[in-house]
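User: Structure tokens for this complex, please. No commentary.
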Amino acid sequence: MIHCGSIVSHLPDKSKQRGSILVAVLVILMVLLTIFLSALTYCLSRYGQHIKDTNKTTASMLADAGIQRTLHNINNGQLFQSASTSLTPNNGEITTEVTAWGPYLLVRSTGGYANQSVTNTALIGSVPPDYFKAAITVTDENYPLMIAGDSRIYGDVNTGPQGLIPGRIKGEGVTSEEFHTGIVNIHQSLSVPHLNRDVLNQYQNEMNSRRTRIECTEHGSKVMGPESNVIFNNCNSIYIENNLIIDGSTLRQPTDIKSIFVNGTVEICGKSQISGLIEIMAEGSILVTDSAYLDEVILWAGDSVVIGSNTTFSGIAICSTEISVKDEATLLYPSMLLLSNMEVPSDAETSISLTSKGLLESTCYVSRDSSQDHSSQCLIYLDTASRYSGYLVSEDKTDLRGILLGSVVTDQFHYYLPPTTYVNWIKDARISIQGLDHTPALPMLETIHGNQFYRIIREDSDIL
Amino acid sequence: MKRVLKNSSGFTIMEVLISATVFMIGFTTLIALLSSTLSKFSTKELIVARNLACEYMNKATIESDITPIDTVLTRSEMSFHVKQTINQNDNLAKFQITVTREKSDKIIVDFYNEIVLSDK
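Assistant:
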């Protein structure tokens, strides 16, 4: 092989040497130009990135401003505001939209600034009314609140006119004289705000509207595994003709609502991770099991919702008959379990049953239709060995046997020891309002009592 | 001139390198001028101004500190004019924070946000 360099060095003709110099100079020039252009491109792209970041921060602030503005309007009585767009003094744009998300309101706000656009979402719930500062609020006017066994109450108690009395069950009275630490406030008539049904009805209407706009239909049953999320990614509204199993899937939906309607039952298992604005509505039951993780999601079941087997749930479960949290299931703030007795026979027994030994950080709400008579039994049950942190609100009955760090607001307590049902009794329960270390997320309550609403801040905000 | 045209032996390496250097200096100056026209502010200036605005916006939105501000601050050996205007309607406070170079009307950062003030 002959090298160019050796040829150049051995050429005797001087005129040809000049040509080789020109080539060398051109090469040097090319190298210098390349280095220079690279440096220039790098500097310009860095600058462009910083401009983009600044504009994105500005857009994000505008999105946040939209949420604040909407919250202000909600607090002034405009619960359902139609989508609106407005310009800001810094030449940005804010677009806001309010929808119902279960018993909460969901605000979606998009900030636009210099070709950058950021969407933030926020859940809006009620600021806890003052009676949630007491350990117990019981509204029944006919029966005194009876305390028995090894019960301890740390905090104030609001009762009806019959007051609070230590009692005996099968001859045994309270085991400690200091069974209550706090003040007993006796009210002739105790009125507490109830769940705002308009919000829940609005959610149902919106959900039904989405149901009429099905984009994908799966005939028969469907298994959604780790690799079969195509249907989920491509369709906003999915209908499964039979049953659905979500096994090992990771589904995430940060800003737009995605709906899955199932005619049969749903099982979520295999360490599935589902988060964001996803609603799963089943005509049958919904079973969450096998270390699944659900955040923000709404589970709406016609039959029952069962959360069990090492699962973690920080979404919203809505059902009209039974919600059960068992085994080692974990509920995390701001999870919400709502038993809403719409379309249920008046003599039916429905319940939220908390028997899990795991961390239970939640808000449970039993909403009772005012047309139902007292022969029905809608209750919240907290098992002996369970420890719950948050609010328990029942427009009907509560059977409290475990440890409650928080506040319970109920129409009546309920204790059953075969063959006797004890009306408005608590036995062997521990309730401490001082032990509550966070403000649980309450749903939208009736506005006639002048309730205030606030943005529920999530720990992983703002993916929402 | 006649001698140069008659000289068909080309340029020496020194001639070419000197002319290339002159060309590069001219080209660099031109591009620098162009980029400074395109980007009104340096990257460092932009970052410092944005951080400054964020600092004040956080005070307003997180700590509900709704004091109007009109001041000159020095950060990273640069001087900025920070102005926060507040327009409060009911309990909704509207903030606008602008950061400009000192003694200049060129706005580097222009943030806007709103916050619902607590009744308590």
